[in-house]
């Protein structure tokens, strides 16, 4: 099963708070069978420890070490927030990429995402993407 499919992507979303955005990112992972429901709480706990804002309008919410048992299989969720959501300290996030990694796979997934998102033009394409297919092709190295 691929870790990123159309059902994992939500376009043109908007959120009042980063908590709402993180919950939505986790909910996609739950609904698609990658994680148990309690993984969302672990994503919020992880955010309290240190922000998952990565720069370049990207946040990568994921669970804590303790949440590994809540991961059923590796998967990604991608939520596009064109107007942005405030992650604190003036950090605006326009793309949320939720990660569930089975075993140690999350490190490999994170590094692939970091490579794609380190180029501002790739991030801009993700923010401007009009279809789920566009997002899948932009993140094809991760899939």
Structure description:
The protein starts with 8 loop residues before the first strand and ends in a 5-residue tail after the last helix. It contains 5 helices and 5 strands. The chain has a single domain, classed as 3-Layer(aba) Sandwich (Mannitol-specific EII, Chain A), CATH 3.40.930.10. Helix 1 packs antiparallel against helix 2. A hairpin with a 5-residue loop joins strand 4 and strand 5 (92-100). The longest helix has 14 residues, at 18-31. The chain is an alpha/beta fold and 143 residues long. The model has no long low-confidence stretch (mean pLDDT 93). It has a 5-stranded mixed β-sheet with strand order 1-4-5-3-2. The protein has helices spanning 18-31, 39-49, 105-117, 120-128, 132-138, and strands at residues 9-10, 53-55, 58-59, 75-86, 92-100. Helices cover 38% and strands 20% of the residues.
The geometry reads as globular
Q: How many structural domains in the coordinates?
A: 1
CATH superfamily: Mannitol-specific EII, Chain A
Derived structural class:
alpha/beta
**What is the CATH C-level name?**
Alpha Beta
Q: Based on the structure given, which CATH architecture is correct?
A: 3-Layer(aba) Sandwich
The count of DSSP E runs of length 2 or more, i.e. the number of strands, is 5
GO biological process, one term: phosphoenolpyruvate-dependent sugar phosphotransferase system
Pfam families: PTS_EIIA_2 (PF00359)
Keywords: Kinase, Phosphoprotein, Phosphotransferase system, Sugar transport, Transferase, Transport
Domain PTS EIIA type-2: 2-142
């Amino acid at each position: 099963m691929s870790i990123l499919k159309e059902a994992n992507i939500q376009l043109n979303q908007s959120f009042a708070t980063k908590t709402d955005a993180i919950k939505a990112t986790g909910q996609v992972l739950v609904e698609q069978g990658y994680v148990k429901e309690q993984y969302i709480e672990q994503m919020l706990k992880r955010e309290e420890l240190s922000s998952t804002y990565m720069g370049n309008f990207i946040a990568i919410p994921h669970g804590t070490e303790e949440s590994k048992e809540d991961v059923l299989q590796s998967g990604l969720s991608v939520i596009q927030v064109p107007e942005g959501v405030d992650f604190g300290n003036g950090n605006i996030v326009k793309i949320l990429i939720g990660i569930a990694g089975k075993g140690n796979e999350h490190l490999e997934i994170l590094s692939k995402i970091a490579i794609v998102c380190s180029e501002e033009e790739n991030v801009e394409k993700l923010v401007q993407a009009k279809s789920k297919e566009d997002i899948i092709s932009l993140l094809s190295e991760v899939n």
